[in-house]
Amino acid sequence: MDKIGKRFEGKVAIVTASTQGIGFGIAERLGLEGASVVVSSRKQKNVDEAVEKLKARGIEALGVVCHVSNAQQRKNLIDKTIQKFGKIDVIVSNAAANPSVDAILETKESVLDKLWDINVKTSILLLQDAAPHLKKGSSVIFISSVSAYQPPASMAMYGVTKTALLGLTKALATEMAPYTRVNCVAPGFVPTKFAAYITQNDAVRKDIEERTMLNRLGTTEDMAAATAFLASEDASYITGETLVVAGGMPSRL
Ligand code: NAP
């Protein structure tokens, strides 16, 4: 982290689901590179703690409670950002749910609805609210998953919603060009609360490590570095792309 630059000075970045894990890592990275960051999640306590941690690192941070499925809270997230910072340069859509390990044909309709709602639909609805405030040269990043390419049996429908984000990236990149670039990061396995099963069992952890070429799990910093690159001017000729950050796990050609 000592060698990072200042690519986001004067920029305003919103990261959803960002009070811990990959979202927090992204907010921290963008903030350390000079961005004013807006962090959010469902619980006020988590939001307050995340803001304190960011401020302790010298980052200008605003915290807003936002359950991404709540239309009023989504609107409030955008309104509070504009009231405080006046514009939006970067949006990272990071929230996801994985409520079931059932096979797709066994998955209840309510669970299908929740997966679609949180993993795909709310990303679109948030962008509808944000679009009027996006600046020229702005950047949208979706957080998908390496499981988008070959949805594993244990999280098949989750994987399919992540596949949808790859298509959404292409479609919105066309729709929002040339004013706004739209890209996507597909993380491999990162031991967060969301993926606690990775570290709960040594055999599972070892198996996942061995499925990577680099023989290790990913870190939130790995995901943050890739996201910051795509959101930055360094990627100013890249749009509609997905960057797989999975230590060489099988994804696509
Ligand atoms: P995490 O560490 O469990 O963090 C989840 C964050 O999201 C928390 O800040 C949580 O705070 C917030 N959150 C949960 N539900 C929310 C909702 N409905 N609305 C708003 N905020 C919500 O998760 P993570 O592993 O970093 O996952 C982040 C993203 O990476 C997800 O899109 C996931 O699919 C993707 N991903 C993760 C992995 C992995 O191995 N970890 C791999 C591939 C892709 P509150 O509890 O306060 O809401």
From TrEMBL:
GO terms for molecular function: oxidoreductase activity, acting on the CH-OH group of donors, NAD or NADP as acceptor. InterPro entries: NAD(P)-bd_dom_sf, Sc_DH/Rdtase_CS, SDR_fam. It comes from the Eukaryota. Pfam families: adh_short_C2. Belongs to the short-chain dehydrogenases/reductases (SDR) family. This is Tropinone reductase-like 3. It comes from Ilex paraguariensis (yerba mate).
